[in-house]
Amino acid sequence: MSAAAGPRPVSIFDVAKRAGVSHQTVSRVINDAPQVAAATRAKVKDAIAELGYRPNRSARALAGGALKSVTVLTTDTSLYGTAETLRGIEDAARAAGFSVLVSVMDPDQAYSEADLLGRLPHDGAAAIVIAHDETTVRAMRALHERQPGATVATCGEHQEDRDADWLISLDDRTVAARATRYLLDMGHRQVHYLAIPGTAGRRTGWSDALAAAGITAPAAVESGWSVAAAAEAATALVADPAVTAILCGNDDLAFGVLHAAHRAGRAVPGDLSVIGFDDYPLAAYHVPPLTTVDLDFRGVGRGAFERLRAMLEGGPDPRPSWRSPELIVRETSGPPRQ
Amino acid sequence: MSAAAGPRPVSIFDVAKRAGVSHQTVSRVINDAPQVAAATRAKVKDAIAELGYRPNRSARALAGGALKSVTVLTTDTSLYGTAETLRGIEDAARAAGFSVLVSVMDPDQAYSEADLLGRLPHDGAAAIVIAHDETTVRAMRALHERQPGATVATCGEHQEDRDADWLISLDDRTVAARATRYLLDMGHRQVHYLAIPGTAGRRTGWSDALAAAGITAPAAVESGWSVAAAAEAATALVADPAVTAILCGNDDLAFGVLHAAHRAGRAVPGDLSVIGFDDYPLAAYHVPPLTTVDLDFRGVGRGAFERLRAMLEGGPDPRPSWRSPELIVRETSGPPRQ
DNA sequence: ATGAAAGCGCTAACAT
DNA sequence: ATGTTAGCGCTTTCAT
């Protein structure tokens, strides 16, 4: 699909001829090989500039060179967390000269290993999966099993793998516990949890904190991913005057709860405290500003890429460079009304 | 970066041997060439399945075959409109067997043509630019000039190009005028506009409607892209009791205005009507629900890809298949208080 | 309907 | 320090 027809693009041979050297020397120059005389290198670089030469990635890949690409697999690029993670990956990848491919999966479909591999540009191609639901979690496991040296994932759950070097995650469990305790400490007798599908970390942190306080956790209320689903799922919860505090799986759910609470005539935070997760840019400017948890998705994306690169190129394992989750208290949470 | 070492991936020759045919016949089968005996085709397909063969995209591209990839260029993949457009492109691209590359540009940087081309996997590679600011608009022009047969853009502004077949855009101008008139018809004497950087369509529609009503348009208030920037930029505006209606460049800005209005003690919609653009999923669940304009970004993304494909493969020009912008009246707009 | 030969642009090995 | 020779896996011709 080169389409844009036009004259044949300039190749390494054209450059070689122009510079009066062999094509191999040109190859050395564009790959920053050490043993090239400064004068030669300059000549070649001039020729490259004059001709507007650009290396052909396909030829490079085929010849056994580094392809330098990552494929990002996920189910929803519009979700805030996913979009930010993708952005972090892209930032780091670009800086390292990698190109990034995006492959969106259907959350409601079951993928065979062949389906998954078919999304990679070639066998053994590097992949990062942004995992947050059943489909992506399964994909991350399958891909890692098949090509452990070229697969990395970001994921907010599944503590069993937490320490695996190929799995980058934020400690949402600890901060969920902290948020729950914060609510309890203010005098709430009970904290409810509105859950996004599949996430175990936040849910576990929440029940941990409750258990530590000697409180029996109520059943978590299951919600879908959308604000609409949350508003719907939380209807009964917010209508119950005994419910004074709700921890939500993410900010979208929190907004849904706020909406439902408003409709039910419950004042926030007077009658009801609501806490989200993610700290959407909007959270601070919501009316009232949302108490939530800052999650550094972009940093995690960058970290995932760096880890992948270390795997691929055998460099030193990069130090984690993202912020730890942090509870940000704003105006949707407070002590219960006596 | 094939990394994941392992045994050499199976090639077309392995399949050929297994099926007892030449490698060329295998090539014909995987490319759905017509002149292959049904029996042969079946044999080959079996061999492919048994061996788990997957064609190597790089080799294909190099040999002059279709690369089937699109590079999406934009400045911010986290913006709602951009994320949705990207999603639409990805949907359509996947269905057509194309892979999609994402390349994020820095909005504050000036890019040379070489910089831009360097983001494509090879010379003449297909590209879609999601344009919404100076950087991306410039990129879209430069790329289109350089490779008119392989560049498409989505863009909400710049009417001069509106009818170009390579430029897909929504008619935000007309709907902006409609929204303004709606406000005027309810009795507002004046409508103010809080502008996102660079967009001409909405701004023009707004001033058109004002002019048509014989009203001199006030200076538009310039804002950045963020909710924070909008809240800041709108501070003076919302504080002015003479201001009763504000049209905002997008929903983020509208949320910023709502925040500022709340801080200034102005009731919405009693004292102040606010209208956004984009219809974020959250808009309907905001408290109060936001009056805004539905913009079918995902449809536009799909459309952009289809157009590109038609260019590339010379197919029939696809019919536009996205929804027209539509004003959605919710609860942040109403008649001015007498 | 099928096969054989050539070559895409590049890098890896081996020269020198 | 530089040049020469092979191929990477595939699609094109061009045969048969």
Automatic annotation (TrEMBL), chains A, B:
It comes from the Bacteria. The keyword DNA-binding applies. The keyword Transcription regulation applies. Residues 10-64 form the HTH lacI-type domain. CDD domains: HTH_LacI (cd01392). Keywords: DNA-binding, Transcription, Transcription regulation. SUPFAM superfamilies: lambda repressor-like DNA-binding domains, Periplasmic binding protein-like I. One of its GO terms (molecular function) is DNA binding. SMART domains: HTH_LACI. Residues 312-338 are annotated as: Disordered. It holds the Pfam family LacI. InterPro entries: HTH_LacI (IPR000843), LacI/GalR-like_sensor (IPR046335), Lambda_DNA-bd_dom_sf (IPR010982), Peripla_BP_I (IPR028082). This is LacI family DNA-binding transcriptional regulator.
